[in-house]
Write a structure and sequence with these properties.
By secondary structure, the chain is of the alpha/beta class. 39% of the residues lie in helices and 17% in strands.
Length: 240
């Protein structure tokens, strides 16, 4: 399979997901590989459990590029490193928690010739109350800065063309735990053709979020708020 042309690469950032990562990868692969030649780009971000061992074992039977780190880089840098490894004409991005249903991929794929970027829209999010609350509050602040037309700019279910990644990836990384907020506004401000697609959002398959703990949310929110000013200045400068 590796000798054939890759249709789409699937980027999955992983941190301490040993309990579910094999199930998540197998589910994604089974939904896509029967019709398309696909390959994973797994960005393992210094997990303290045995996520890396599980992924390495899986790589013996499922096509993948494994980008592993002994130290924690953070969600955004892990995603950015994966994007820089892209060689296929399309990149599908999904988180490793299994909350986004990979069956929805085909809705995205049908639109690939009409749009540069296809964003997921979690119409009914299955997250804990406090995470939903803070996400909605940040959404209103975010819209005061950028006034995007999107309902769910932080959704990690994204299909994007390689030329978009090549154009934008070097500018990304101002929001260390909130990559997709920045990605969405950058593709919007760059005038790419974008479509938002409703997706099925599920409860986590097991465990709890490894990124946003309640004890961290205020610090993350403050840093992301400051990052909005920086991103806005950069975008305004690009349009001068």
């Amino acid at each position: 399979m590796e000798s054939r042309k890759i249709d789409v690469e699937i980027l999955v950032p992983v941190y301490n997901e040993a309990a579910i990562i094999e199930r998540v990868i197998r589910e994604i692969y089974s939904n896509i590989s029967e019709q398309l030649n696909c390959r994973f780009i797994i960005c393992e971000d210094g997990s303290k459990d045995n996520s890396n061992l599980i992924i390495t074992k899986l790589s013996e039977e499922i096509p993948m590029i494994l980008i592993s780190s002994s130290e924690r880089k953070g969600y955004s840098q892990a995603v950015k490193d994966g994007m820089m490894a892209l060689t296929a004409p399309y990149l599908l991005c999904l988180d490793s928690d299994g909350q986004c249903d990979p069956k929805d991929f085909w809705k995205f794929w049908e639109l690939r010739d009409r749009y540069d970027v296809i964003l997921g829209w979690r119409v009914k999010r299955h997250d804990v109350f406090w995470r939903l609350f803070f996400s909605r509050m940040f959404y209103y602040i975010y819209q005061m800065f950028f006034k995007t037309p999107f309902h769910d700019p932080s959704c990690p279910f994204v299909l994007v063309k390689k030329n978009v990644i090549d154009d934008l990836v070097s500018r990304m990384g101002n929001m260390p735990q909130a990559y997709w907020w920045e990605f969405t506004v950058r593709v919007f401000s760059a005038n790419y053709k974008i479509m938002e697609v409703k997706i099925n959002h599920r409860y986590r398959l097991a465990g709890k979020t490894q990124i946003f703990g309640l004890n961290k949310v205020f610090g993350i929110g403050y840093r992301n708020f400051l990052a909005l000013f920086k991103i806005l200045r950069q975008i305004n400068k690009e349009h001068l």
